[in-house]
Amino acid sequence: MKFKNVIDDLRQQYENQPLNNQKDAEDMASEAAHKCLQHLNGFPIPMGDVLRSLGFVVWVRNFTNKSISGVMALHANEKFPMAIGVNVNDSHGHQCFTLAHELGHYIFDIQDKGKELITIHYNTSIDNENNLSELRANKFAVYLLMPQNEFCKIIEEAKRRFSNRKTRIEYAALAFDVSITAIQRRLEELKIAV
């Protein structure tokens, strides 16, 4: 099955599924990420390539509002019907996380019913954990880019190879192509000491 078909199936599956609480958000994100991972090979996941395979144009831009990490636009114009932009001022790892986050929105939150312009902005300065659709997109990105089993393997490898905590975290960030902050949050979430 082509990856695009997997995404189309997930979009259809979640089209009318209610999002009532944090557990729903985490369960949906986990299930969708797991299904995606079955069709992707290895880590780090090349998010730009993944999105381009779905028909997205991916660009890096200097946003006027520096707190905006990403934006997705559908039906912006005929030349670029699907586009995702990330903030040039964010680290490469943060940009990759943002791309995965926007893919989460595309799966769960965008119900494309016509040709009207649809845009979504991801603003890192806002407490997104209180917004269930933002929480779900964040969790999808976490579960896709740093699935628990792979994450634990990389952390154990980092512990064997390096004695310095900072170096271990940097190693994991490179292995998953995410920011150091994303690794630190995943470590806290899984209650793993480094």
Can you give a write-up of this model?
The chain folds into two domains: 143 residues, Arc Repressor Mutant, subunit A (Orthogonal Bundle); 48 residues. Helix content is 53%, strand content 12%. Strands 1-3-2-4 form a four-stranded mixed beta sheet. Helix 2 runs parallel beside helix 5. 35% of the residues are buried.
Q: What's the order of the H and E elements?
A: HHHEEEHEHHHH
What fraction of the residues are assigned to beta strands by DSSP?
5-15%
Strand line-up of the largest beta sheet: 1-3-2-4
The parts where pLDDT drops under 50 for at least 5 residues are none
Write down the Rg.
Answer: 17 Å
The CATH topology label of the largest domain is Arc Repressor Mutant, subunit A
What is the helix tally?
A: 8
Number of β-strand runs: 4
Q: Mind telling me which CATH architecture of the largest domain this is?
A: Orthogonal Bundle
The outline comes out as: globular
Indicate how many domains the architecture comprises: 2
Mean pLDDT: 90
Percentage of residues in helical conformation = 40-55%
Helix/strand-derived category reads: alpha+beta
* CATH class category of the largest domain: Mainly Alpha
What are the SSEs and their pairings?
Layout: H1 3-14, H2 22-37, H3 47-53, E1 57-61, E2 68-74, E3 82-87, H4 92-108, E4 118-123, H5 132-145, H6 148-161, H7 165-176, H8 180-190
Parallel strand pairs: 1-3
Antiparallel strand pairs: 2-3, 2-4
